[in-house]
């Protein structure tokens, strides 16, 4: 499995989660062994120019924090894009580290159906309207090279349009949502043959009071004999033991009992997050 993340240029530079994800990218137990980040860089964030949106020359400079290689490629050249993507895949496969592909392109129309970009970016959009679309540019090149004929190109376009039209027509008649079509590896026994979920009933997970008391006692004790622990900690353990004796639980003890019961079944529990090692919260 190879993870691929798709970003917009403004989001890549502006969203904190991108920076945070890069810092998780090589941590033990968190790494995906290299993610390929594809940035669709249309050089405008809704209506914000790059000079107003970030301090760095490229939106992808945030990836430098982990020394990820960054490939800037002209999206008007499909063969260059293919080449760069295969190099990125090879990099990831060889070094198991993150890699970034910056597709330098433009947005032909507005941010959405309601947006008229000529209001805010008139000069940019005058230039964009002069650009030959990438499909026509590439088709003309292939026809000029003799790689394909005009007839072959037109047939391919017609075939693609037909696929889209047929799918659109079918979507209007569709009354059933086949969930399994959206899963590349459906879990066995999770869905019925028709793709509908089986009943979502959970098996009872309760445990005996005897086991709860046992977990409470263990959670209140010091595992090593004659081991001197911090006085602050001994107060906490003492209070926990009192609660167990009095058949009372607070959030922390309830959490202990939940973890303890899972551990009793031989299931590994890993805690991660703020101050879990010290149990502050």
Automatic annotation (TrEMBL):
TM segment ranges: none
Keywords annotated in UniProt: Oxidoreductase, Thiamine pyrophosphate, Transit peptide
SUPFAM superfamilies for the chain: Thiamin diphosphate-binding fold (THDP-binding)
Cofactor names: thiamine diphosphate
One Pfam family of this chain: E1_dh
GO MF annotations in UniProt: oxoglutarate dehydrogenase (succinyl-transferring) activity; thiamine pyrophosphate binding
A biological-process GO annotation: tricarboxylic acid cycle
UniProt cross-references to InterPro entries, sorted A to Z: 2oxoglutarate_DH_E1, DH_E1, THDP-binding
Keyword Disulfide bond carried by entry: no
Signal peptide region: none
One annotated Gene Ontology cellular component of this protein: mitochondrion
Domain Dehydrogenase E1 component: 2-179
Family under the similarity heading: Belongs to the alpha-ketoglutarate dehydrogenase family.
Name under which the protein is recorded: OGDHL protein
Species annotation: Climacteris rufus
Upper lineage: Eukaryota, Metazoa, Chordata, Craniata, Vertebrata
Gene name tied to this protein: Ogdhl
């Amino acid at each position: 499995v190879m993870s691929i993340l798709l970003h917009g240029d403004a989001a890549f530079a502006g969203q904190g989660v991108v920076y945070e994800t890069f810092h998780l990218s090589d941590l033990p137990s968190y790494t995906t062994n290299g993610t390929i980040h594809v940035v669709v860089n249309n050089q405008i964030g809704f209506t914000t120019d790059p000079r107003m949106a970030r301090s760095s020359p490229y939106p992808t400079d945030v990836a430098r924090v982990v020394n990820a290689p960054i490939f800037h490629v002209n999206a008007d050249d499909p063969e260059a894009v293919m080449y760069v993507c295969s190099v990125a895949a090879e990099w990831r496969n060889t070094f198991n580290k993150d890699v970034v592909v910056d597709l330098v392109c433009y947005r032909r129309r507005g941010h959405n159906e309601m947006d008229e970009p000529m209001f805010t970016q008139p000069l940019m959009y005058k230039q964009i309207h002069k650009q030959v679309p990438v499909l026509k540019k590439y088709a003309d090149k292939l026809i000029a090279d003799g790689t394909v004929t005009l007839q072959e190109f037109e047939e391919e376009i017609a075939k693609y349009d037909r696929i889209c039209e047929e799918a659109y027509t079918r979507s209007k008649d569709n009354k059933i949502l086949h969930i399994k079509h959206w899963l590349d590896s459906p879990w066995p026994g999770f869905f019925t043959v028709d793709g509908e979920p089986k009943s979502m009933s959970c098996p009872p997970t309760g445990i005996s009071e005897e086991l709860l008391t046992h977990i409470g006692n263990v959670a209140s004790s010091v595992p090593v004999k004659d081991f001197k622990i911090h006085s602050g900690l001994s107060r906490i353990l003492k209070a926990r033991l009192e609660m167990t004796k009095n058949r009372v639980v607070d959030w922390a003890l309830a959490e202990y009992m939940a973890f303890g019961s899972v551990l009793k079944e031989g299931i590994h529990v890993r805690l991660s997050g703020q101050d879990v090692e010290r149990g502050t919260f």
